[in-house]
Prior knowledge:
9 helices; globular; alpha/beta; Rossmann fold; two-stranded antiparallel ribbon; disordered N terminus
Amino acid sequence: xxxxxxxxxxxxxxxxxxxxxxxxxxxxxxxxxxxxxxxxxxxxxxxxxxxxxxxxxxxxxxxxxxxxxxxxxxxxxxxxxxxxxxxxxxxxxxxxxxxxxxxxxxxxxxxxxxxxxxxxxxxxxxxxxxxxxxxxxxxxxxxxxxxxxxxxxxxxxxxxxxxxxxxxxxxxxxxxxxxxxxxxxxxxxxxxxxxxxxxxxxxxxxxxxxxxxxxxxxxxxxxxxxxxxxxxxxxxxxxxxxxxxxxxxxxxxxxxxxxxxxxxxxxxxxxxxxxxxxxxxxxxxxxxxxxxxxxxxxxxxxxxxxxxxxxxxxxxxxxxxxxxxxxxxxxxxxxxxxx
Length: 339
């Protein structure tokens, strides 16, 4: 059984209300009103901040940071991209990054290595940001000619650099890193899942008795996998599924898919993998199909409801979890700081 689609309520405007709005607006140009709306939003939430991170293997990684006004109460969501894509797919006016920020989330959009501004030369090309040339290939092989080591480095180094940035913001009181979600479309789904498993495998600091130690990881609490594949260039989700669906970890997963036959079949396979067993996973595992032969981030901005479903999912599985802000430095580091 597939879970029923979440419903979101929409405000119904009366004819009188609409007329009043039009009358108030007068004859001001629509462009001016749009600029006023943008300025108001920027003043309320702050401008997105481009940042450059350095990975442990020496790659310059470009991100955009959307700060939250909720500070220590703010969950944080990391937005990844498809192969040959870039972070700007989330960043258009009224895009999903801004929508998350307006709901109180801190948001980090990421250009993984060789993509967007993180590719050699640091410039986003026209159209598909990293579109490869040469002979046309299949969906998985098209575009950039990446090796197995490149994909491994994305979750081992790129995502770890992002997590270090998030920790710095956490320690500054700007967000709560223990309420962390990741959205990964296609290739990004595999990177998100493998990084979540890596984050949960980190041993805590040896600064107290077991059960009272300061954690190094265990922060990824919710994953959105859009058009995931069971095996993407050696990143086989079956390898990490047992860890991610462990009931003790309480990680929530939302799988989204378009109506393309292959995309739908792969996504359903991944969903079933995380759902079964145990039975208690049903409350945390969700599947959402959409009536369009599109996949990955191509599902965005089409009024299909994927953005609303992600907002509801994060509201339930990030905002509502009981995980208050805590100092994430080891107790030893805190003592040394006081000296």
